[in-house]
Specification:
It contains eight helices and eleven strands. It is of the alpha+beta class. It folds into two domains: 120 residues, Gcn5-related N-acetyltransferase (GNAT) (Aminopeptidase); 122 residues, Aminopeptidase (3-Layer(aba) Sandwich), CATH 3.40.630.
């Protein structure tokens, strides 16, 4: 069911053959009288989610026209399962699904933000240079000291990003140990005085021949110098050298400066996703 219908809403974490189930991945099916599945819901409440008391729906989907009668029991089942470890649940759905949006609001969900999924084809890449004196440093596997530096810079810059929460060293260690990891893809930007001032993460995307750019952050004092553009160029060069044909990234619709930068670099909006949140007491 998830393989057939999951991408209709959000393909980020569709439960598949490796889905763990259990307490950290509570999963439910809504059954018809004949025993066939007519809806599913699954949540994620592992250590990184517990640390911020905010769980995520991996999938919340029912057949037919969206209704409170179908989505309500599924949403409540996940909410009850994560109630001891989280105060809030969130999900993403395509902005165009107005009927689903209305049903979720009726169930107590609130709109938080719109996020754009953007894509660019990798062809002739001419990256912008870094400003004089700035350098990049790749975090090596097992180097928790450098990983902590990366997380520190990321967290202080992402505090201004709507919907973001502080990350942990463990979260990025898991990324470096995952199949999506690209060696050298976790990058710290160093200023001329040797201080850390920016971050970049480049991963493999689940789509074949695709990479994903994330965690682009620059300290306020070092912005407007072309560092972000240089980071995007670096990620594009790395992607091309590894044989990727396109790369993706995600940006909040309200982040006008970042959106303009990505569009100048050739990225196009592929999908607008609405993030909605709900208290687990729904």
């Amino acid at each position: 069911y998830c393989a057939e219908h999951g991408a209709e809403h959000d393909e980020s974490f569709i439960p598949g053959s490796a889905w763990a189930f259990g307490d950290d991945f509570p999963s439910f099916a809504l059954l018809s009288e004949d025993g066939s599945i007519r809806g599913v819901a699954a949540g994620m409440i592992g250590p990184s989610f517990k640390a911020i008391r905010r769980a995520r729906f991996a999938i919340l989907h029912a057949l037919g026209e969206p209704s409170v009668d179908s989505y309500g029991p599924l949403a409540r089942a996940v909410a009850d399962a994560v109630a001891d470890a989280a105060d809030e649940l969130y999900l993403f759905h395509p902005e165009v699904l107005a009927g689903l949006h209305a049903v979720l609001e009726e169930l107590g969900f609130s709109f938080e933000r719109t996020s754009y999924l953007m894509k660019v084809e990798i062809r002739d890449v001419r990256p912008a240079p870094f400003p004089e004196g700035y350098a990049t440093e790749a975090v090596s596997p097992g180097d928790d000291t450098s990983l902590a530096r990366f997380v520190t810079v990321r967290n202080r810059n992402f505090k201004e990003v709507l919907g973001s929460r502080d990350a942990r060293v463990e979260d990025f260690r898991d990324i470096m140990e995952s199949p999506e990891n690209i060696p050298g893809g976790l990058i710290i930007v160093c200023a001329p005085d040797g201080t850390d001032c920016g971050t970049l993460l480049l991963e493999r995307d689940e789509e074949e021949y695709s990479s994903f750019i994330g965690t682009v952050s620059i300290d306020t004092a070092h912005r407007r110098r072309g560092i972000a553009r240089a980071l995007i160029g670096k990620a594009m060069i790395m992607s091309k050298e590894l044989g990727f044909r396109q790369t993706y990234l995600s940006v909040n619709a309200t982040n006008a400066k970042a959106l303009q930068l990505y569009q100048r670099e050739g990225f196009k909006i592929m999908k607008a996703m609405s993030c909605m949140t709900v208290k687990v007491s729904l």
